[in-house]
Amino acid sequence: MEFRNFIGGEWRETAAASANINPSDISDVIGYAAESDAAEIDHAVGAAKAAAVSWSASTPQQRFDVLDFIGSELLARKDELGRLLAREEGKTLAEGIAETARAGQIFKFFAGEALRGGGEAMASVRPGVGVEITRSPVGVVGLITPWNFPMAIPAWKTAPALAYGNAVVLKPAELTPGCAHALAEIIARSGLPDGVFNLVLGKGKVTGARLVEHRDTDAISFTGSAETGSEIAATCGRLRKKLQMEMGGKNPMVVLDDADLDLAVEACLNGAFYSTGQRCTASSRLIVAGGIHDRFVASLTGRIAALRVGNALDRATEIGPVVDGRQLDKDLIYLDIAAKEGGQVFGGQTLQRTTNGFFLAPALITETNSGMRINQEEVFGPIASVIRVEDYEEALQVANDTPFGLSAGICTGSLKHATHFKANAEAGMVMVNLPTAGVDYHVPFGGTKGSSFGGREQGAHAKEFYSKIKTSYTFA
Ligand code: NDP
């Protein structure tokens, strides 16, 4: 299978290509993906710029029809595309199928948003003058996406970009070209005019960097690591370019003495380890009150030991492989750091399976404190640590002791503590008696502090980033 660029309505090959490897079985080459140079980005941005004006004038019905077509096909093919996702990224089949369905629902939601456009009209403070506040597209939007949600994140950036009338250049992660290619292949048949959506595959440092600095990209939406985000922010700041970023997390899950133990263990198991812990919203810090701590750890370690780690395409698998060798090395380094800092590591050994993949037993690190590196730096693997606290007040203080602020959870039977936590957790999303990961597609997604920058993604609030406001005064 060849994964090519899609520019100006044409599929294009590049001189170089890189192998796309299945992390559950490194002998399985899924395909070869274009390794683009900066000139391919220039070409794609040129095509987007040429198409942007007429798409900005498209009717709500045209936009609805295109987005609805894409959403319907994603939903109809969720099993097939979910399997590709699991094979390429290492999520389990069930997770891959659910993510593909979610991508379809996102397109359906923004199909509706295209119809709900609208503006505001009001009287001026001056007699005889009317005021209108309208929204118009931003222009050419560059989208840069990570590997960990290879279908959903391209969907939740592309769908609002198109719904609000923008032209798009998508640069997906190098590790997951197949999902982006499959999405582009559907978009190519959706009735969208040539050049409105363009896909360029290749290395971020070459293609992504070029997309950010290109003088004809009007806005950049990025999801990925804090390090890359800082580089992109510096360039966009210099160029005064509109920017939205979603970066990492070090998400706390507080478990109070009055929590339902089974519910808390289930929420932590799901939040910390599902999707191999490779979620920006993963519960990587479990902050547990002293009265429930020992029962909680005993129950959670029992559940962790029973998790079936294996080939993502095997229906019995509950935890798939780590995405690649580099991420596996990073996970192992952090386990070592945690042990040297005095943490007690349960699990965390590499595993052999019938296929040669990057399998890691989920790990729980107990006896940690908030200052340790394992509790301050994002790992992005199936690894969580436990911090023992005295009471709710200390739990909240530890929960907020992080440079990140994406998602925060609390398990408690106390309405008083849940209400206080919702108001005072320094995070963009707060979960009560629910895992920190797992969000709805029709409401805003994003964080505070070092996790996010710019307007929110998803839901109707996405229009803040993907459109610009004009205020018109008329004296008649
Ligand atoms: P990276 O930051 O390495 O990559 C993200 C994207 O940026 C990729 O497409 C990458 O391309 C591209 N890129 C890399 N370097 C540059 C550059 N200099 N200029 C422009 N683009 C560049 O992150 P990962 O893909 O490795 O994803 C893991 C990280 O992302 C984790 O830290 C995680 O927390 C974070 N993340 C945050 C989410 C959120 O919503 N808050 C969601 C998902 C992940 P290439 O792949 O070719 O290097």
Outline the secondary-structure elements.
Layout lengths: L1 E2 L1 E3 L2 E3 L4 E6 L2 E10 L3 H19 L3 H17 L1 H12 L3 H23 L4 E4 L5 E9 L2 E5 L7 H12 L3 E5 L5 H12 L8 E3 L4 H10 L5 E5 L2 H14 L2 E5 L4 E5 L5 H13 L9 E7 H17 L18 H16 L3 E4 L15 E6 L14 E7 L2 H8 L7 E5 L3 H10 L4 E4 L19 E2 L9 H4 E9 L1
Parallel strand pairs: 1-5, 8-9, 8-11, 9-10, 11-12, 13-14, 13-18, 14-17, 16-17, 18-19
Antiparallel strand pairs: 2-3, 4-5, 6-7, 7-21, 12-20, 15-16
Helix pairs in contact: 1-7, 2-4, 3-4, 4-5, 9-10
The chain binds NADPH dihydro-nicotinamide-adenine-dinucleotide phosphate (NDP).
Overview of this protein structure:
The protein is of the alpha/beta class and 476 residues long. It folds into two domains: 2-247 and 451-475, Aldehyde Dehydrogenase, Chain A, domain 1 (3-Layer(aba) Sandwich), CATH 3.40.605; 251-432, Aldehyde Dehydrogenase, Chain A, domain 2, CATH 3.40.309. Helix content is 39%, strand content 23%. It has 14 helices and 21 strands. The protein has helices spanning 38-56, 60-76, 78-89, 93-115, 152-163, 177-188, 204-213, 226-239, 261-273, 290-306, 325-340, 392-399, 415-424, 463-466; strands at residues 2-3, 5-7, 10-12, 17-22, 25-34, 120-123, 129-137, 140-144, 167-171, 197-199, 219-223, 242-246, 251-255, 283-289, 344-347, 363-368, 383-389, 407-411, 429-432, 452-453, 467-475. The strands form five sheets. The chain has a seven-stranded mixed β-sheet, sandwiched between helices. The protein starts with a strand and ends with a strand. The model has no long low-confidence stretch (mean pLDDT 97). The protein binds NADPH dihydro-nicotinamide-adenine-dinucleotide phosphate.
